[in-house]
Amino acid sequence: xxNLFFIGLLFAAFSNSVYAKLIEPCRYHLxxxxxxxxxxxxxxxxxxxxxNDNSWRLLDLPxxxxxxxxxxxxxxxxxxxxxxxxxxxxxxxxxxxxxxVRGKQVSIQFDGVYMNSEVWINGHYFGKRPNGYIxxxxxLTPYLLKGKNTIAVRADxxxxxxxxxxxxxxIYRHVWLNIANPxxxxxxxxxxxxxxxxxxxxxxxxxxxxxxxxxxxxxxILISSIIDENGHEVANSKLPFSVNAKATDELAQSIQVVSxxxxxxxxxxxxxxxxxxxxxxxxxxxxxxxxxxxxLEYSNINGFLLNGKRIKMNGVCLHHDxxxxxxxxxxxxxxxxxxxxxxxxxxxxRTSHNPVAPEFLDLCDKMGFLVxxxxxxxxxxxxxxxxxxxxxxxxxxxDVTDQVHRDRNHPSIVLWSAGNEIxxxxxxxGVELLKNLxxxxxxxxxxxxxxxxxxxxAADNGQTKLAFMDAEDIVGxxxxxxxxxxxxxxxxxxxxxxxxxxxxxxxxGPVRNIPEYSLGTDKSIVRANYTSGMMExxxxxxxVAVHDYxxxxxxxxxxxxxxxxxxxxxxxxxxxxxMTNRAKDGYYFYQSQWTDKPVLHLFPHWNWPxxxxxIIPVLAxxxxxTVELFxxxxxxxxxxxxxxxxxxxxxxNKYAKPYMGVTTADLHLSWDVAYEPGTIKAVGRKNxxxxxxxxxxxxxxxxxxxxxxxxxxxxxxxxxxxxVHVDVVDDQDNVVPDADNIVNFTINGNGKIxxxxxxxxxxxxxxxxxxxxxxxxxxxxxxxxxRKPGDISxxxxxxxxxxxxxxxxxxxxxxTVMDFEDLR
Length: 824
Hints:
Blueprint (H helix, E strand, L loop, with lengths): L1 H12 L4 H4 L5 E5 L4 E5 L16 E3 L27 E10 L8 E6 L6 E5 L2 E6 L6 E4 L8 E10 L17 E6 L2 E15 L3 E12 L5 E10 L5 E11 L3 E12 L12 E9 L2 E10 L4 E4 L3 E4 L2 E2 L2 E6 L12 H14 L3 E4 L6 H10 L2 E5 L17 H16 L5 E8 L7 H17 L5 E5 L11 H6 L3 E4 L7 H4 L2 H6 L5 E6 L26 H12 L3 E6 L5 E2 L8 E2 L12 H10 L5 E4 L11 E8 L3 E6 L2 E7 L28 E6 L4 E8 L2 E9 L6 E6 L3 E3 L5 E9 L12 E8 L1 E7 L13 E3 L4 E8 L4 E9 L2 E11 L6 E2 L5
Parallel strand pairs: 1-47, 21-22, 21-28, 22-23, 23-24, 24-25, 25-26, 26-27, 27-28, 39-46
Antiparallel strand pairs: 1-10, 2-3, 2-4, 4-9, 5-8, 5-10, 6-7, 6-9, 11-12, 12-15, 13-14, 13-16, 16-17, 18-19, 19-20, 29-30, 31-32, 32-35, 33-34, 33-36, 36-37, 38-40, 40-44, 41-43, 41-45, 42-44, 45-46
Helix pairs in contact: 3-4, 5-6
């Protein structure tokens, strides 16, 4: 029996090896993204098995048809949807199952379809799923044919407006075909928790749901083995069980792991639960679940503790779009963005305001982010005419259950959010709805607390019900400083009145970056637009940082996103990273407060013709003790900051570190400088030693384009992407900060351009055009591979500018993901 188990492990570990080909797998999880037919429009007969779709467009998923359209001021979505088109779309795919999988259970899994999806297989109707963000599964088994099978999907995003931000349209996430034996582990059927954890040992509790769709009782053994990151088994449990025909059972096991490698934000160690079902001498199912061993604690005094260590959640809110690629976001873009956020010192993410793609959570697990997994933007009371309030009563609890079942093994998820700025928070009915949802969360996952993001706490009229906040495991505050004296006192009022409440800032104002620096339109006087956008965020952070009972704060937002705009804008520019994945000024403020590495960032640029001799504010974000500013070699003085300020240590007027007379109580530094072209340079020192320098040069006129790809190779899997940045530079290779030259992209070889942008939230040029006006001297393109190895050559040209090019090699894919088309 043990040998059979190890055969299963060997197959899982060497599934691409010659050895593995000798063993017939008992389960497949196949990517079903390739070769779908698409129609933008409605045809009521398109679900028929014999429907002629020869004239339809052939494409691969994920696919967002809205992002392919033009921005229009009168679009039915309005600013909420980014002024992009929606409508109704149909997808069809025909496939033949090989004889080797006949008699098995076959289901189709959609990770996300926006919205009101309807699905048919061979003319059989499965029903409608209104929620555009939830993952769902249908059992195809009873309706499959021996020959050609036809699946049809209708997505209806025509009733507008239905969202306050950009949603995308269509099958914008992955689709999977799951194939298993009649006796198998159910969809999302493993549930792993770690109720007892310390450095010496951990108790791992496992629940496994088994389905028997066969015709007879199943007498089998469940072997649950825990595998570490090196592929070594560290513990296991065997449990004999029986499941009646056409029945389901849930099995419970408890396993001790000695000297566990704990999951944390700095060392996100992951384990794999390898579940094997053996019947007689045959392995009938194998399934792998990733999890982490960690201990979560929340305190009304100490905030959040991970593995016994207090951690402040330095959080950001994120929407689900990827800028110029819309809602169909290649995983590489999220990986790039999360690395940037990690570098900023961010350790926590709120998924605003709906379930995200599963692969996003996988990245959070691997990279060590804490996640607040949010479900809804509305319950019963609407925010816009056709939003989810139309479906909440029928689908709300079902959608939460599916979300929790799908996501609950992710160690990154430390908190559930049942909703964002729910209007029902102000009514007795809302209290009832909250308690109903809490019952679902607590039943399906008692290991994590639940909050909601409340925006009307202490509002003048119709404020959040006290019973609503009392019911929550953790009270969530959107803009804790919004009302009256809370501008200065923040959470302290409620902490005094309700000392048992656990509190978290679910959404707060950010450092407000401006799209373009300006000194005003009147050239006789300086009215800078960049000098005050950090004040509110600085004051809030000073409070949050020194009050342990505040669990953390989620700033709005980490990255610019589409929607919530006013024409001619197409998106919000509240992010600390723009849509082209470039850091803005505010990024360095948070980096200076959330990291220990030396940070020094000067702004604005130093191109101000016609302003010679005028006094211009020069600002810096830094965590250095002192910064000295030089203009063309002349010192403008040393500025000194300290936060938190140190108090006396040991005796009166004694200090643990050398005392410094600070020049500001703010968290940024500022100098007033008489403008003269040249170089401004800042020198940062810690403990008297120079640790970092930043400088900005006045540039010449644009003379060339500079192109940089984030990678030199991508995989020939039709999914991988390269992110290409283009800068307009002068003769000295300095980026010209106010350049707006047209940049034209030309591509040759084994790939395509799937999006072009410049980071300008007010540029309404289609993302699918292969040209773009530079914004602040910058443009950007996303290049996607096809399925043939070779080279991609990308050339950028601009009028009067020296062109540039880059070559990206497309190599044979080494992905472990198996496509349905590869199943033979």
